[in-house]
Design a protein that fits this description.
7-stranded parallel beta sheet; 9 helices; alpha/beta; globular; 7 strands; 43% helix
Length: 267
């Protein structure tokens, strides 16, 4: 999944306007991406307008992913932007690390889980009101790599229970190294632990979203894939907020070198 239009856009001194975003969107299609995180429609009018534009131009076999916080007003704005989209991934996040629970939210674990459940419930309800779109749901426990594994599992399980996925219509659980706080083998161990403990594992696509604070984003992705991850989020050349996202081109070329075709064409 390319995050160039959303996470990569945050790295630019002057963010892309809808016209530049459109040119890059078509380039990503030519490269072979079929899941593209296109923006955060509740963040600005430009972001909202670009998503509305894609409802008229996105190919039916491409899933347009949009990011939203767990706030009710952001979720409503997100679904307003997606009205008429052929296929969409609604990706919501909630910070889960102990530092953020204590300093940012000032809540306990049970309260944060209830916030996640409320957001997931609203997302499911709004999706059911727009049956012409092929919906997919995604949840990110933000700062997963700095979160106790037992709590990360508990909040993911609570969200999955609301969405009731099946092997034929799975949900996406995206486990980000929002800040790369440890070595790649440690992140891979965390992914493997989640892979082994999720109760509805056959109805979950396990996704990763490495950042590059330690310069090890590609290594973390490769080890996480070996540990059970099935999907990767990243940006071309690693563009992204702060120290950057996973460099998708390097990862893809590394996979090619090992005889694995990632389905992207950089010719």
């Amino acid at each position: 999944c390319s995050t160039d239009l959303r996470d990569g856009n945050q790295a630019l001194a002057i963010p892309m306007d809808p016209q530049r975003k459109t040119r890059m969107f078509h380039m990503l299609l030519r490269l072979g991406f079929r899941e593209i995180e296109a923006g955060f429609p509740a963040a600005s009018q430009d972001e909202f307008a670009f998503i509305r534009q894609l409802t008229r131009s996105a190919p039916a076999d491409v899933a347009i992913q949009v990011l939203t916080s767990a706030r009710e007003e952001h979720i409503h704005r997100t679904f307003a932007a997606l009205e008429g989209m052929p296929q969409a991934i609604v990706h919501f996040y909630l910070s889960t690390s102990p530092l953020q629970r204590r300093v940012v939210f000032g809540v306990d674990e049970a309260t944060l889980i209830q916030r996640a459940v409320s957001a997931a419930t609203l997302i499911r309800t709004l999706a059911e009101q727009q049956p012409d779109t092929r919906w997919h749901f995604q949840f990110s426990p933000e700062s997963f790599s700095a979160t106790e594994l037992e709590f990360a599992l508990a909040i993911c399980e609570a969200v999955v229970a609301v969405w009731e996925p099946t092997p034929h219509h799975p949900v996406l659980l995206n486990l980000p190294a929002t800040v790369e706080v440890a070595s790649p083998n440690h992140y891979a161990d965390q992914i493997e632990w989640m892979d082994r403990h999720l109760s509805r594992r056959n109805a979950v696509v396990l996704s990763i979203h490495p950042h590059n604070d330690r310069g090890c984003g590609v290594a973390a992705a490769e080890l996480a894939l070996l540990a059970g991850a099935q999907r990767v989020e990243g940006a071309l050349f690693g563009n992204g907020e702060r120290t950057g996202n996973l460099d998708v081109i390097t990862l893809a070329m590394n996979l090619y070198s090992q005889g694995i075709d990632p389905g992207l064409d950089f010719s």
